[in-house]
Write a structure and sequence with these properties.
Layout: E1 8-13, E2 17-25, E3 31-40, E4 44-45, E5 48-49, H1 52-70, E6 73-74, E7 76-81, E8 87-96, H2 106-117, E9 125-137, E10 140-143, E11 153-164, H3 165-176, E12 181-187, H4 188-196, H5 199-204, E13 206-211, E14 216-222, E15 225-232, H6 236-247, H7 251-261, E16 274-277, E17 286-289, H8 290-316, E18 327-331, H9 340-348, E19 352-354, H10 375-387, E20 393-394, H11 402-407, H12 442-450
Parallel strand pairs: 1-7, 7-12, 13-18, 18-19
Antiparallel strand pairs: 1-2, 2-3, 4-5, 6-20, 8-11, 9-10, 9-11, 13-14, 14-15, 16-17
Helix pairs in contact: 1-3, 4-10, 6-7, 6-8, 8-9
Length: 454
């Protein structure tokens, strides 16, 4: 019987938009996108749910569009989480082993991680995940995997990601009240990194800068391991607000100006370059200088980049071993401003490129999906396909009803395999290497199982 590649769904709940992407792996391990839905995000501010009702409506709208585009019924989603409540820290911990003559195994690693999971955080906060950086065994350092070694003292440095429990549960509640099941919840910078970064860049050392609508997310990789994460509490929407105030126009016009004529490098525009904005209710049109527009954008982008540089310095701390050879990769909607990569490279002195999420996509995809705007969405879909063997969507016209199975027993040789809807034209999925984020949501899933969300 033909094996069906599982159908997965990524749901990006952002400040400006909510995107649902449905897809599966094709025979070469690339992502075949079957449908996409997008709606305006009405209830989210800076990555945090501020209005439950409006957020639910926006999610339902995006899911409905994705279902209509794919012809599939969506039941479960991989959800991204970000927001200014996310923070990270470094922590070192150790255990003393009872028998130094026995080899170190997974039990020892789990005991060490349990020590970290039991750390006391600030009220209302919870450890989302503890990522081991490197291990030490009896004084020997820089060990990537200590399993199979001998020693009495096992120690490790951990990168710990912390978030507010209330914010996580609010996202879960919105998803579940949209008649969906939360498969996993993962940190959005990790999803974006999965979509736009190569393994060679992660090994060499790279900074991912995802400029979204409400926040700018940062993730630093070195030696293939995530080393530092941070969230800057402003993004593209703040740039739009600056244009609105500086040019004295309405928000819709400010956004249009930013997208069509905005540039992060003011030296490009001449003083006599003018764009005319229609006046309100019979008022005279307003003329805006493109050089003035670029100066407004440049000032805010500089502020964002300065915050990025500060986070890079916090990570490196003048340690030459932490040098980020691959430089900076900028993605997200804010990366589409003209001359963004040139400005980032000029201010940081690091090689910079724009990150496009097209590397993992199979041929024939919509050109729209190759935009940095969809980096997080494609990354969440990629994670869902790698993490979840079960399907997250099905064809409502081909599903086998349970009543039919119970009324008439089927012979073992003809009984369909579990999770196989017997779709035609399906392909066998190619296994992918386990990514760095695997296991990130174990703590969150435990909360959702232990605490029934109303």
């Amino acid at each position: 019987m033909t094996q069906i590649a599982p159908l997965a769904v990524g749901l990006d709940i952002g400040t400006t938009k909510i995107v649902a992407v449905v897809g599966r792996l094709e025979e070469h391990g690339k992502i075949d996108v079957l449908g996409i839905g997008k709606s305006k995000s009405l209830g989210v501010q800076r990555g945090v749910v501020a209005n439950i009702t409006l957020t639910i409506e926006s999610i339902q709208s995006a899911i409905k569009m994705a279902e209509e585009a794919s012809g599939l019924k969506i039941t479960k989603v991989m959800v991204g989480i970000a927001g200014q409540h996310i923070r990270s820290m470094q922590h070192s911990d150790y255990i003393m082993r009872d028998d130094a003559e026995a080899i170190i195994d997974v039990t020892d690693l789990e005991a060490l991680k349990k020590n970290v999971d039991n750390l006391v955080m600030m009220p209302g906060e919870q450890i989302l995940h503890a990522l081991p950086q490197e291990y030490r065994v009896d004084g020997d350092s820089n060990i990537i995997n200590p399993r199979g070694m001998y020693g009495s003292r096992l120690e490790a440095n951990f990168h710990i990601v912390v978030g507010q429990i209330a914010s996580i549960k609010n996202i879960a509640r919105c998803v579940e009240q949209s008649e969906l099941t939360v498969g996993d919840i993962t940190l959005e910078p990790l999803a974006s990194a999965d979509a736009v970064l190569g393994e060679d860049e992660k090994d060499a050392g790279v900074v991912l800068v995802d400029i979204g609508g409400g926040t700018t997310d940062i993730a630093i990789f070195k030696d293939g391991i995530i080393r530092h994460t941070a969230v800057i509490p402003f993004g593209g929407k703040v740039i739009t607000e600056d244009i609105k105030e500086g040019c004295e126009i309405i928000e819709k016009q400010a956004e249009l100006l930013k997208v069509k004529f905005g540039s992060a490098w003011p030296g490009e525009n001449k003083e006599n370059e003018i764009v005319s904005i229609p006046g309100l209710r019979g008022r005279a049109p307003k003329e805006i200088s493109l050089k003035t527009l670029s100066k407004i954008i440049n000032a805010r982008v500089k502020e964002i980049i300065e915050s990025v540089v500060s986070e890079i310095n916090n990570y490196q701390q003048n340690d030459p071993r932490k040098k980020l050879i691959a430089g900076i990769v900028v993605t997200g909607g804010g990366s589409q401003l003209k001359h963004m990569n040139q400005l980032v490279e000029y201010l940081t002195g690091m090689p910079t490129r724009i990150g496009y999420p097209n590397e993992h996509l199979a041929g024939g995809y919509l050109k729209e999906l190759a935009s940095p705007v969809y980096a997080t969405s494609i990354g969440l879909l990629s994670m869902a396909l790698a993490e979840n063997p079960e399907t997250m969507a099905y064809d409502p016209n081909e599903i086998i009803l349970p009543e039919e199975e119970t009324e008439k027993p089927v012979a073992p040789e003809t009984e369909p395999e579990e999770g196989d809807p017997d779709q035609e034209g399906s392909v066998k999925a190619k296994p992918r290497k386990d990514p760095i984020w695997k296991g990130f949501v174990s703590g969150i899933k435990k909360w959702l199982e232990d605490d029934d969300i109303e």
